Fold these 2 entries.
Entry 1:
Amino acid sequence: MKILRQFQVMASAFALILSFASSAAQAVEAPAPQAAAEKQKVVFQVSAGDPKIWNLALNNAKNVQQELGAKNVDVEIVVYGPGIGMLKFDSAVANRIDEAAGDGVKIVACENTMKALKLTRDDMLASVAYVPAGVVELIKKQKEGYAYIRP
Amino acid sequence: MKKTLLATAMVAAFGHAPVSFATNWFQLQNNEQPGAAAYKFWGFIQPTYTHNEGGIVSGIPATVVSPANGANVAVPAGLQAYNGQTALFNLVGPDLAHSDQLRMFRARPGVRGVIPGTDENINYFALAELGNNGLTRERQAVLTDATVTFNYIPGARIRVGLGRLPLGEEAMLGVQIMDYIDYTNVTNQLLNERFVEPYTNASRTHAAVVGAPMAMSKLKGAFGGYRDVGVEVYDWFNRGRWEYAYAVMASQANGISFGDDLNSGNHDVTARVQAAYVFQGAGPKREDITAYAWHQEGKRAYGGTDYNRIREGIGAKYLRHGVRVGGEYIRAKGMIYVAPTPQFNDIGAPAFEPVDYVALDSGNKADGYYLDVGWKFSPQWEVDLRYDELSKMTNSAYDERKASTWTLGGQYFYSPKLRFALNYEIRDIKVVNPGAQITNGQKIQGTAAGIIGGSVGDRLSAQMTWVF
């Protein structure tokens, strides 16, 4: 019984040593914890009614994801004002919106704009999220450290 | 109060913002997007390779058994001469010289835009054809579209000039985004009009064709190309996700020819109505479910007499999440282009040069349909499957012929402006009612027709589409 207890103590100690060794190895091989925490963040503003701008914003978002890796960057597109047509069900870029949302891009519509234009959520693409005010969302995101891009 | 003012200001500010650009063919081909430039050059080319697997004709016998008395009846040497020949439907048109050929099928440069100073209320569209097809069978280059659209009257836009007729879906769609390389037989042969005049070559005396009365004719001018010169009134109306559209066109009935002399002043009236429930998107690949019906009526001058010509159809299509399902039924009365007869290039006596046989009277009928499914299973790849059937001369048991085709297709979308398509067509042509061959003449010609039709082969086509 005593031998068994000694064996348990030794096993625990060995496991502890292995644990430290493993942690030390991870500390050497893994990226610095600080770097992992520094996930890139970018917010795009779309407030123009020109489908060329819509396509440009979607291209930018896709390029950012490809360059940095989709898991390493949070991308959000804030749409308001005359740009709201980008997110309507009959948008010329509807399929690209679905594709971007599927790739992890957050695309939000300004509800203030929708109210002004008497648009309901039924009028919008299914993959769209909503914020009360597009401009306020841009302010919030910049305070949170998002890079701001207006294509 | 502030909120109301803000909302009012926003609505006012967006007054000049583009409306959403949900699209139907009328809108896509006749109108410009808000903010469009005064001119935009564009176009596309479609180099195409076609290979016919059809073999040569064999087995036209020296005699047939008389349906009247069971005796052997001699088959004329002129018919037997086609043993060893290749039928026209196994050759690549419009040249009809080779069974396989690489050609510039379509090459269409164009320009479109809004006329400056009209507050975007007047726009125009022009497109030329430089490719090798039925439109350019007489001239190397032709105009296929030249229209001006006036958008002043709510509910009644007016398009003037040479443009698309509001016909069936396949006839209306832009060929640069067509999912198959060739049209169905039913659309091509009933709606892509062949303009004809009486055959007058006295140096070649053709044997009479038995059966329903048909006129020996020759093609004149270009194929109609689903277009005509005229005035079209049209518009569309959106109610939430529902869209309703109509078009009525009065036209010269001359196809892409601007002159009114081909048809002695006769005119066509063509109308189409459609309703669509839009799931999402815009443009030619909008995700929706659409139902439509159309009707065309007019007269054709032929040999000093006017004949009624009627075409009509009904159909539906569905596109959602990359899955496409569609179908259309089309029927025709009068001015039925039956076929070139004989179905061979002129091989010299005792055979004859082909003559275009046309069933003129409105008692002559034809009908057909197509069913189509497609699946775009990735952004780059799509597979397609289509079945189409065309029955001509359904009013006469002896004359009735049926052509049916299965088309297997695949498309690779290299980029939004560059696409490759591959089609394999399994084709069949049948004499529908052999039992209706009750005279010696019918037995002889019907037997030969069955053998010649049976020589139709499968067809492989490959095409690149580059939109610039």
Note: The mean pLDDT of chain A is 83.
Entry 2:
Amino acid sequence: MADSIPVTLTINDTEYNLDVEPRLLLVHAIRDVIGLTGTHVGCDTSQCGSCTVLLNGEAVKSCSMLAVQADGQQIETVEGLAAADGTLHPIQQAFAEKHGLQCGFCTPGMLMLSKALLNENPNPSKDEIKHALAGNMCRCTGYQNIVLAIEFAAGQLSR
Amino acid sequence: MTTSSPPRQIGQSPRRKEDDRLLRGQGAFSDDINIPGTVWAHFVRSPHAHARILNIDFSAAMAHPGVLRVLTGADVHPPYHPIPPVLAVRDAENRDNEAGAPAFTLIARDKAKYAGEIVAIVVAETREAARDAADLLMVRYEPLPVANSPEQAMEPGAPRVHDERSNEQVRWLKSTENVSSTFEDSEIILRHDFVNQRIHAVPMEPRAGIAHWDPATQFLTIWASIQGAHELRTQMAEVLGISPDQIRSVAPDVGGGFGAKHGGEVEYFLLAIASMELGLPVKWAASRTEEFLSLSHARGKTSEFEVAADRDGRVKALRLRHTTDLGAFPKGATPIVAQTSAIIATGVYGIREAAFEVHSVYTNHTPEGAYRGYGRPEGINLIERAMDMLARDLDIDPAEIRRRNMIQPEEFPYYRTPGGDIYDSGNYPEALERALEVSGYEGLRERQREMRADGKYLGIGLASWVKTGGFGPSSLDPSSSMPEWARVKVSPAGAVTIYTGSSPHGQGNYTTYAQVAADTLHVSIDDISVTHGDTATVTYGMGTFASRNMVVGGMAVLQASQKILDKMTRFAGHALGSDPDGVDFTDSVFNANGSSITFREVAARINQVLERPPGMEMGLDESSFYQPTHLTFNYGTYVAVVEVDPETGDVDLQQLFCVDDQGVVVHPVIVEGQVHGGAAQGIGQALYEDIVYDENGQLLSGSLMDYALPTAEMMPEFISEFIETPSPTNPLGVKGMGEGPTTGAPPAVVNAVVDALAPFNVRDIAMPLTPERVWRAIQDAQNGDQS
């Protein structure tokens, strides 16, 4: 094991100073070191997207980068989505409204992916949404209601 | 008493009560749970499908910093026991099998029986140290010849998975009286061999668990990603040789199960043993590859199928030889699943003669277990594929041949099939006609003709299916009798808490059980909370499996709620100076003799000793068991629409029309979600998913890079409709429905693809219908090589 390396991660506007092994994955820094367990690990091969977070506003799979690579950068996780007063973000509300989740395990990744998608493309077509979801897997819903939720959120956010 | 309800909650689709915390990332899945002092386990697994274990040298691993203990097969001995086979499997019929069923070994000792079987456990202070040290473990193996398919494993002289017994666990025969003569007298006999490929449930949450044995109190707490906390407790007590009263078992938030997480898994018992050995909490979180290697697979069956019919397409008899690949060990009742799988092969049709021959065989593969449908999808697939083949041979439309053969509505309730299933109720022709109408079937056929003229290949596939729900009834053998338990309590402030022994993990029962209680007690579902999945708070429970949550668990909630209402009514009668029979309950108010008392007032005042009638105890806290008498049978007709590109073999599944009857629909939006998700899994089997072993029994499709789990772009548009024939088996009228869509979708999709390729004379393609297989089927058929 190599020596620990100091890193600074800003997660949901809170700064965390950590000493981490160079090999520590960002997702394990978020979950195991910082204790934000809303970000999940669903595979070993970066297919499933359960670990999706925003890095400087862009969706990344936090299982596929090292914590040290995120040093000094801004990270947003599912815990940061709701407003300070606890009001759910319109994307979260849309998933509830359209029954876009069942077991809820993939949901944090889906929400973060949706936020990145809608930042980039505020009015995506169904096909664009499905394409954007290519790296996020759900085994419960068959995706139809997830797509509907993202469409609905897009409508709410553009009002 | 009389009641008139406020607007009924059953049949409405309120927002799910469980969503808020899941949306905030505040779910508590097993890997999210951390307790101070936790140490980590890493399981070392056999790289060979079948091998003698000659020696394990763990000196280097033990010397690794942070390593606390290495356990091997030599350490796991009495008082620890392997998982005993379930009663039904012990009694299963096999004339050649005097050795009985093997126990499910927790850890390999002398030999490993599948690639992925655990041979050692490394426990260390951190996840990383345990894993690093595992790489230092030196295991010497002597590879052995492999039993790599059930057919090969049944041959004389085949390698034995269990040295002490033959590979065939179950050989079961059942037949009606006149099968042979019916075949002899029939004008048309269709014979075809089918393969139902092995697949994997792939719940998105990999298994994880923490076991914490407290030496001071001699008490074990285990958190695990399972479908039933109570069942794990029962098995845990047997395996550890301690009392169930020394165990608290918790199924926290569980990220999907689909049957694969039903029943204890060896890893959880080994975590408990490690914790007992060390006196520390021990945690494990599976990697996805561990899941593919060791979380049970399902479906793997090969079938020789014959039907006898007349020239009008009326099927008179069937014969089925059904062989299943159990893998290396019997998980739960898996060895007898092939029987229930076989007998449903008469499907929704009035076929009166049937002969079944079932073989359940051990191989050096990952053990099979439950997966959404539990054998029924394989049986339905046979008859639904055969119906299409017969239709083509006789030049009858696939809808018409189904129409001619269906069990008629007047044959219900309680239609007995040749295999012994008792279908509770239904209107099978109505589901068919509705599906034809919703899909615009005639128009699709017209479009198909037009497109073919343009060299494009549209396919339309039907599947009419039926699937059991509501396990387990008292009408089957006693070991199948599985009641469910519920407790309902009302606080003095009027808040309602439901405790259920079922263990939902995505099915939405936090909401739907609240709807059931709300209709009885006239309270808002906002005032109802649901507790489940913890043996410390829930007294009894069976868990979530076999489409039973609403049928069995929901009925227990209804019964307990009715007991609460009965007691409140007696109190209200006393308070209002009336017989209980004279009390009316309307909109949460008890009325009698021109005066009234509200639900909340009763909840508060029932605790005042001077207010209660003589003999009535204080409090509102009632529990109930519901024991179903019969299975329920949900059914439907699905229509798949595909376009196939014959140049590339690519299948574009465009739409799946789903008409389902699951009896009374408690929450239409949740039920529709179950249809989407279940059908998506069925589509996965039809088009994409495959567990593949190489010639040495090595799993080739052991990660999500290699196993094609469907993504959003692979999904069609789902169009879901319901018809409702209430089940006569229970007062809620529900049938359960989680597994039906997984049963209906595969044959609908395969029938559609084969239908699209009719101009090429393609007769069958084995699932999954990958572009390569579709393309090859076209080439073979063009070369006159009928598949």
Note: Chain B has a mean pLDDT of 96.
